[in-house]
Amino acid sequence: GVSHSRPNTEDMSLCYANRSAALFHLGQYEMCLKDIIRAQTHGYPERLQPKVMLRKAECLVALGRLQEAHQTISDLERNFTASPTLADFPSQSVQKNLHHLKMKVQEKENLTETFPAALAKTLEGVDLREENKQLSNASSSVSLCMDPLKGRCLVATREILPGELLVKEDAFVSVLNPGELPPLHHSLDSKWDTRVTIGDLYCHRCLKHTLATVPCDGCSYAKYCSQECLQQAWELYHRIECPLGGLLLTLGVFCHTALRLTLLVGFEDVSKIRKLYDEVSNKDICLPESSSWVKTLNSGLGEIEKNGKIIETPIPGCDVNGKYESNYQAVFNLLPHTENHTPRDIKSSCTLQLEAASFQTVTTGANSSQLKAATAAPVLTHLSFPLALSGSKEGIVTSSRQVRLATGIFPVVSLLNHSCSPNTSVSFISTVATIRASQRIGKGQEILHCYGPHKNRMGVAERQQKLRSQYFFDCTCPACHTEAHRMATRPRWEAFCCNSCRAPMQGDDVLSCGHRGCAVSVRRDHLASRLQDLRQQVGMARKLLSDGKLEPAIQQLSGCQRDAESFLSAEHAVLGEIEDGLAQACAALGDWQKSATHLQNSLRVVEARHGPSSVEMGRELFKLAQIFFNGFAVPEALSTIRKAEEVLSLHCGPWDDEIQELQKMKSCLLDLTPTPVGPSV
């Protein structure tokens, strides 16, 4: 309603007032107060003023702002005395509410101020300890180097410990993904699709989560967390984007990123790149760094060895002083493997669509020809990082999954080369990406990130194909090298086992038991068919579980479990999925002990596949800690909380939402646990 109402109308004011009521019942008192102010700014009717004034006073009392509450109550009494004939509010009702509020204020004033220690986050450990003089947004333990085969790369200047923060970079440009549905509860069947999208819950500029967005006055799509963000977005880019909203949504997020990048940088700088591409023939595509124009911009020096001699070479993206910064010059030099791209690829198909589109509606600042010329710059879609968030469905037991929040370009983070077994983890807070060491990194060792294909999620052949098609290189990381040269044995989370002795089955088309005293053999395609049927049965059980049919779901999953144990290894991924489903069903029924047992079985599968220090392991430990906490198994909960904190802090840092929740659980358990005072008499 707020997004589609006209500004400065009664409809708009009523929408804000009604939303303030919802926020009040959610206990979001600060946001409620802001919406009350917005309602009054847009002309909230005089006849309804007592409604929001009472709500405002309640919020101020709840927040402990007693002097302001006193003033609001006095204003309400004075206004009501001056206009006692408000039809919507009987005098007796208002007087009763005012008396109740005064009593609340008095009670608060009589309480001794016993507020706990300030909970403000100092963000210790979130900022870089010592920023790199050569590389912006990176710690001093990281160095930018040139490799004759890999190009630019990041290398450790000293030994780096697990969990250490290496890069913290704000996106050079980011665009909210419009079509993603957040993981919220939406099980009610209705002919109206009332589901909200990410665009309704996150600020379109800073990506901050908010329940009370402030919409753009000119369109119903763009929404912001505050008036300040709205104004900044308008001045930087939205004044151009606003009349193009429908077109940009049609063309997609990468096209939108291209335009926003152009608007942030400025037409003059981007037009230089258009001139460069106009000079290049359709077939004679050269590397950007080989162009004399680019070399004049990239005079930072690196070192490479050639014929036994160390020579200096320009590092693309560095300024005249040799420093690499998060700017447009660095963004332009992120486009690698241009010899594998056609001119259409380099210009990007989405920017070609922008060129063909009509910009006659744009009348502020830039004209049509300027926009078409500027947006021909490469968007670097292959270097755009998905900014992710985790969410859950409401209910007794929640299901969490990651969804793509936005797409952003990070010039420094993009310098990390790929490994299918990386030594870092990336996490996002709003528009900021942080890179942490996930394991010990030795001095001189390259710092590596995973572009998506991970050794624990897909086989070497599939990884190689994905990397070759999207990034134009053959991965030679240790994980790929090891898998390519070892025997073609399936990993434990995909292995079949003997029905008689539970030993692993080995072979190609015909599998034989690996135990010497067992002569069982079976065709692989037979077991593959059984596995396919089993997956269908597990899917049906999951559907029962999501529909709240807990007992039938448990029966179905128990049958799947018996079948799976007869031919799958104990660490097979499907067995882990079954155990996780049983844990969820038992938790929903309040049987915390059984739930914990099933989840511990699932945990073994996750550890076998992803490793004991993986982020996946950390999230499973977080789930187990919640189960123990709800079942009030204090020693088990505290032990699991400690393990989960250790693992998650390596990947996400100390201020991750899950770590904060773990600390709250630990504090609660410690407060409720009696402290021993010595031997009893």
From TrEMBL:
<keyword id="KW-0808">Transferase</keyword>
<feature type="domain" description="MYND-type">
    <location>
        <begin position="203"/>
        <end position="242"/>
    </location>
</feature>
<keyword id="KW-0479">Metal-binding</keyword>
<dbReference type="Pfam" id="PF01753">
    <property type="entry name" value="zf-MYND"/>
</dbReference>
<protein>
    <recommendedName>
        <fullName>Protein-lysine N-methyltransferase SMYD4</fullName>
    </recommendedName>
</protein>
<dbReference type="InterPro" id="IPR002893">
    <property type="entry name" value="Znf_MYND"/>
</dbReference>
<dbReference type="GO" id="GO:0005634">
    <property type="term" value="C:nucleus"/>
</dbReference>
<dbReference type="GO" id="GO:0007507">
    <property type="term" value="P:heart development"/>
</dbReference>
<dbReference type="GO" id="GO:0032259">
    <property type="term" value="P:methylation"/>
</dbReference>
<dbReference type="InterPro" id="IPR044421">
    <property type="entry name" value="SMYD4_SET"/>
</dbReference>
<feature type="domain" description="SET">
    <location>
        <begin position="140"/>
        <end position="452"/>
    </location>
</feature>
<dbReference type="GO" id="GO:0005737">
    <property type="term" value="C:cytoplasm"/>
</dbReference>
<dbReference type="Pfam" id="PF00856">
    <property type="entry name" value="SET"/>
</dbReference>
<keyword id="KW-0489">Methyltransferase</keyword>
<dbReference type="InterPro" id="IPR046341">
    <property type="entry name" value="SET_dom_sf"/>
</dbReference>
<keyword id="KW-0949">S-adenosyl-L-methionine</keyword>
<dbReference type="InterPro" id="IPR052097">
    <property type="entry name" value="SET-MYND_domain_protein"/>
</dbReference>
<keyword id="KW-0539">Nucleus</keyword>
<dbReference type="InterPro" id="IPR011990">
    <property type="entry name" value="TPR-like_helical_dom_sf"/>
</dbReference>
<comment type="function">
    <text>Protein-lysine N-methyltransferase. Monomethylates PRMT5, modulating its transcriptional activity. May also act as a histone methyltransferase. Plays a critical role in cardiac development. Acts as a key epigenetic regulator of gene expression during cardiac development via its dual activities as a methyltransferase and negative regulator of HDAC1.</text>
</comment>
<dbReference type="GO" id="GO:0042826">
    <property type="term" value="F:histone deacetylase binding"/>
</dbReference>
<dbReference type="InterPro" id="IPR001214">
    <property type="entry name" value="SET_dom"/>
</dbReference>
<keyword id="KW-0963">Cytoplasm</keyword>
<keyword id="KW-0863">Zinc-finger</keyword>
<dbReference type="GO" id="GO:0016279">
    <property type="term" value="F:protein-lysine N-methyltransferase activity"/>
</dbReference>
<keyword id="KW-0862">Zinc</keyword>
<dbReference type="GO" id="GO:0008270">
    <property type="term" value="F:zinc ion binding"/>
</dbReference>
